[in-house]
Amino acid sequence: MDFRSYVRQNPAAAVTATAALMCLMSLLQSASGGDWSRFRGADGSGVSPEATPPVEFGDARNLSWKTPLPGPGASSPVIADDRVIVTCWSGYGTGAGDPGRQEDLQRNVICLDRRSGNVLWQHAEPAVLPEDTYRGMLAEHGYCSHTPVTDGERVYVFFGKTGVLALQLNDGVKLWHQQVGDGLEERRWGSASSPVLHGDLLIVAALIEGNSLIAFHKQTGEIAWKQEVPGYTGTWGTPVIVPGEGQRAELVLAVPGEVWGVNPETGKLRWFCLVPGIDSVRASVIARDGVIYAMHGRGGGCVAIRAGGKGDVTSTHLVWQNDRDRNGIGTTVAVGGRLYLISNRVITSLDAGTGERIEQLRLRAPSADGEAGAENSAEEFGPPYGRGGGAGQDYSSPVVGGDHLFYTARSGDLFVVHLGDRMSQVAVNRLDSGGIDYSATPAMADGQLFVRSASVLYCLSQK
Fold first, then answer.
1. Given this model, what pLDDT does residue 98 score?
2. Of the candidates 446, 408, 448, 454, the residue with the CA atom closest to the CA atom of residue 428
3. Number of neighbouring beta carbons within 10 Å of residue 356
4. Which of 45, 202, 377, 416 is packed most tightly, with the most Cβ within 10 A?
5. Helices and strands: H and E segment counts in the chain
6. Taking CA 339 as the corner, what is the angle to CA 334 and CA 344, rounded to the nearest 5 degrees?
7. Is 231 left (phi over 0), alpha (psi -120 to 50) or beta?
8. Mind listing the domains of the chain with CATH numbers?
9. CA angle (442 as vertex; 169, 157 as ends), nearest 5
10. To the nearest whole percent, how much of the chain has pLDDT over 70?
11. Distance CA 339, CA 419 (A)
């Protein structure tokens, strides 16, 4: 049965007291200021309310510690109290030349002490084979692009067709392991959607592996609900949990050509909005003040949609649509009534209420341009340099602490931009001598910034 037909045949049930309580619990979990518990923070916004991390840093400045990792990965670190968790892969496809034997591929979950960077425990999970061959677009991000999520007692990881695991946070003991399907993306581009928590449910967008949205009881791993949604395998974004009309929690996810609002308690579709798009969605949606912002496809464009509603809300809840400005592979960020999109090392700010462009700023790196600063301009920026410089292929998403935006380019240039009436680049930093891939989105909490490369995890804080 087509997913949207559920809206017509199964109207959403009234909100029960239990559902309202679970929604409140979810919001309270998101309010923990000292944690960064999932991809782009507890609420998926990429914004930290805590003190701003240092704007200038390097091997000899504001570096608290750095810890080598047993393999590469594009997943982000997550933070729970005094612990930092990160994933990587090893055994196959870890370097140039011969990738090795796929039979040796494994995923690793590493837990580090937040104060010292010392490894507290490590779990290795053998891959379910066959996997995508290490080549082409798959090699651009690899086998660990799903960011973990933690509730402060356990850490939950999604490893594509290898499945979903729950580990104890204190010692790494595996509590349960569930498969979600054995499918591979038809273009062999890999999988990347990260899991999210809602109350006692762990929700996984296994659209590539199993053509399904699946919710597990987080304590036992038993399936709470499973909704088949065939035909949307070109989805790499992560859902967000947002309050809807009448304080109904909603699971919101962008897929090619649509944005969905799903009941997180049952998996049933409440509403959908038709939006521009082609065959793939790479960025995650974000939500702020009851409005959802989605960046769509390789062709560019973005939309704003009011949360809530029932059925097809395209004509009733679409706030604005901008077909001119685009985001890259990463996810946008909303701060102070503005959206900040990054593509080809150019930041475009939009009015969050209207979608109108406010300004643009080209990021400058000494290694590429001979200067660190950049002047604002209203011109239509093109790529600042060719593919050899990495333009347009950055994978990370911006994050914001205080009034500064932090953005990591794959080249290892870490840009810091002051946000105000006008954007201004205030620093560009490096943590190594170059040649190392930086594809992960940073994490931040309590004035600390956690950055991971393909080989090292760094903790940066003001000294």
1. 84
2. 408
3. 12
4. 202
5. 5, 34
6. 120
7. left
8. 5-460 (2.130.10.10)
9. 35
10. 85
11. 11
